[in-house]
Design a protein that fits this description.
182 residues, mainly beta, Immunoglobulin-like, 2 domains, 6-stranded mixed β-sheet, 6-stranded antiparallel β-sheet, 1 helix, 17 strands, 2% helix, Glyco_hydro_31_C, Neutral alpha-glucosidase C, alpha-1,4-glucosidase activity
């Protein structure tokens, strides 16, 4: 057993494996073995993750992303993603980078540019979104692209974990888009 202090008395933390919610500002006892290492995500954060494993970062350049949203006690979250070629200084000398900002508030996830001077071509898409801490099952989920096209998105709501899972998306990481959860 390990004693783990989760800071912030007005915050919520999520176990990244079980999605269990923990109130901040207290110490919790968690079993730790060589196979299980406790990892927590702070409520109010958006963490981009690669959805597949590759032999190297070079092999994974165009691999799809997933977004893991951990909602705060105010049902909001934000995070960022930075991309460049990973090996040169073109991000510095030629502004070849991509910096995106994700924000979730009032049931809407927004992907927008965080730095207009950066330009980096990427084939990456967001294919999965997991929203932790969503208190009720939505009646609909739609995506809205930068050209205004609205499409329904298939979703699964996990009542016990208070989690919403969106799969089989194809949202370009380079474009502005929104996901509306109603």
């Amino acid at each position: 057993m390990a004693d783990i202090f989760l800071p912030g008395s007005n915050e919520v933390w999520y176990d990244s494996k079980t999605f269990a919610q923990w109130k901040g500002g207290c110490t919790v006892k968690i079993p730790v073995t060589l196979d299980t290492i406790p990892v927590f995500q702070r409520g109010g954060s958006v963490v981009p993750i690669k959805t597949s494993v590759g032999k190297s970062t070079g092999w994974m350049t165009d691999s799809p992303y997933g977004l893991r949203l951990a909602l705060s006690t105010q049902d909001s979250a934000e995070g960022e993603l930075y991309l460049d070629d990973g090996h040169s200084f073109q991000y510095l000398h030629q502004d070849q980078f991509l910096h995106r900002r994700f924000s979730f508030c009032s049931g809407v996830l927004i992907n927008r540019c965080a730095d207009e001077k950066g330009h980096y071509p990427s084939k990456c898409i967001v294919e999965q979104i997991l929203v932790l801490g969503l208190r009720k099952k939505p009646s609909s989920v739609t995506t809205r692209s930068s050209d205004g096209k609205v499409q329904p998105a298939a979703f699964t709501y996990h009542t016990k974990a208070s989690a919403l899972s969106l799969e089989k998306l194809s949202l370009s990481i380079t474009d502005d888009w929104e996901v509306h959860i109603r």
